[in-house]
Amino acid sequence: MAGGGGTRLWPASRRKRPKQFLPILPGGQTLLGATVARLLPLVPAERILVVTARSQVGEVERCVPEIPKANIVVEPIGRNTAPCIGLAAVDVMGRDPNGIMAVVPSDQYVTDADTYRQSVARAIAVASSGDICTIGIPARTPETGFGYLERGDQAANGAYALTRFVEKPDAKTAQDYVASGRFVWNSGMFFFAAERILSEIDRHMPALGKILSEIRKNRGETDRLYPDAPSESIDYGVMEKLPAGQVFVELGDFGWNDVGSWSAIGEIRNSDENGNVPTGETVTVDAQNNILYAGEGRVIAAVGVSDLIIVAEGDAVLIMPRSRAQDVREIVKALEKTKRETYL
Amino acid sequence: MAGGGGTRLWPASRRKRPKQFLPILPGGQTLLGATVARLLPLVPAERILVVTARSQVGEVERCVPEIPKANIVVEPIGRNTAPCIGLAAVDVMGRDPNGIMAVVPSDQYVTDADTYRQSVARAIAVASSGDICTIGIPARTPETGFGYLERGDQAANGAYALTRFVEKPDAKTAQDYVASGRFVWNSGMFFFAAERILSEIDRHMPALGKILSEIRKNRGETDRLYPDAPSESIDYGVMEKLPAGQVFVELGDFGWNDVGSWSAIGEIRNSDENGNVPTGETVTVDAQNNILYAGEGRVIAAVGVSDLIIVAEGDAVLIMPRSRAQDVREIVKALEKTKRETYL
Asked: Quick one: pLDDT at residue B37?
């Protein structure tokens, strides 16, 4: 899944160019490129589909030239993950009615690719036996920015029964979750047979099911039919509605990072001898522990500052302390409020 | 004088677009525009000449459209102030052999325009009687970034005898200067008859005098002749060589600011209710006492930072504490050293 927008890494990420397309990883790799590279030892490029918005097809082709163009599944308009996954499932069914799908977001970073592939392979095995599986990340810190999954006992298939999806908790609840040991972070990855997810969509999201069924009969009508799909996440639209015992969770302890704010860049990239984490053209004098991100054709010069995030991309510049990385949203709100959304 | 380059307000000012052309004053006025506006009650536009580099003629026309195009004196190449003033003197002689010149830099800010014009009028009166005059700014703080003038007794013409030009002093010397009461800052303004300065150039800078004399005979040859002029300041080339008693100094206590660094912008522009001094498009959240300068087509967003200078112009961004405004030169040096002078 490489559609959607996002401004959490604003101004590098914009509504029209979200973070999966940015060269933020070491060596200038993109999150989308890294996601595909991480899966290639497990799944050949011919069997990797990338679902994206029409306006972002060019970015996808640029970031992952190894993916055949016929494997780029185009959403005429963004409609959240349930329609996106449904559209991909229709495509998979056309290729192989017994096809098993591994659905992974394209904007996550993983430190330990081997362990990642082992988790993915186990989840695919669960899906191959007809069940629905997800991957949960062992929750070691009480993050309030993630959804959580509560797991029950280990099942015969080796995975854990998933007993409950929970939304982003408050700080106190998150601490309880971590203390309990039964909660894991929801990675947003899902594994199932294409046929199974389409039948669950028929059951729990009949309006979407009807649209997908028509698209399945006539793929040429996608542009006309898809925009009527309800904008809904697969979590809320399907997963949370499945009876207990029908969804399983595999654990994935592979250094997962959802790159949800500029702080994450300080975690996934190496710092220089002064603790600065530079991307692009930068000049620093007496500056320590800053995250510096200069987009193409930009240079950032910093003198005598510490622990800042400094981003220059296109028409916009952002400066804030690393401790306030979440507050990009305050800027986004302020720009919306003052009718300057063109900067977003 | 509106030629020259400068990077003290980098990255807003560049070698090719120095500070006199930037919209840094309240209301987006430029220093050149303000300089002309300040003189207009004293000198009509028809008698104001602007000397500038060929590459900057467009900037001059944009900043001071009230100046007749025939009054823009073009230097084929920058050669410091002595050739620049000489070239202007040749132009003045062609208009009026008895012409008196008031030579003023175009990149200085003045708070009290009335007092300024009174000082200029007194200096012009001194020049009209055949003498050479300058304006000194009462030195109240021991600045080390300015040259100083030592003044002697008051003369019959009402001005003070200028006894010595001194270069930028060290901190201790500057303190002694301020304590003595006899030293004033060298404003870089000069007043003399065109004929007088040409004859002093002939005497003290004969090579330049010869070139100017040829240009005077054939103005069409300026492009060929001028580049051979020695690159020298009028202070060093002529003024410091004149015998004591031949140069006079008028005092000018009119809120003079040479806009020598980004700190100056905090002095000449008003701050908002949070102490921020914004220019251009800016968004601030929990940010205090910052100087923010967003060039055309740029937006600066600052969250949770204080006492910083943040500048975005064209391809470059600068961030530093207000207390380190002088250290732009460290960045300039670093860019030169790393062969990235295209940013300067």
From this structure: 98
Residues of A in contact with B317 (CB under 8 A): 294, 298-301, 310, 312, 317
- A210: pLDDT strictly greater than 90: yes
Geometric angle at alpha carbon A190, from A185 and A195, rounded to 5°: 160
Helix axes A31-39, A113-128, angle to 10 degrees: 60
Minimal Cβ distance to B312: which of A303, A305, A312: A312
Which CATH code fits B19-257? 3.90.550.10
pLDDT at B218: 96
Residue of A nearest to B299 (CA): A316
Query: End-to-end alpha-carbon separation of chain A, Å?
Result: 22
Output the pLDDT for position A99: 98
Contact B100, B237 (CB under 8 A): no
CA distance B330 to B344: 12
Question: Which of B9, B298, B299 is the mutation pick for testing A, counting most A CBs within 10 A?
Answer: B299
DSSP run (H or E) holding B103: strand B100-103
Strands (E), A222-288: 247-251, 256-257, 277-279, 281-285
Which of B283, B290, B307, B337 best tests the A interface by mutation, with the highest count of A CBs <10 A?
B283
The residue extents of the domains of chain A are 19-257, 271-343
Flag whether the ipTM exceeds 0.90: no
Q: What is the Cα–Cα distance from B340 to A49, expressed in whole angstroms?
A: 42
The closest alpha carbon to B344, from A301, A286, A311, A292, belongs to A301
CB B31 within 8 A of CB B22: yes
**Partners of residue B308 in chain A, C-beta under 8 Å:** 305, 319
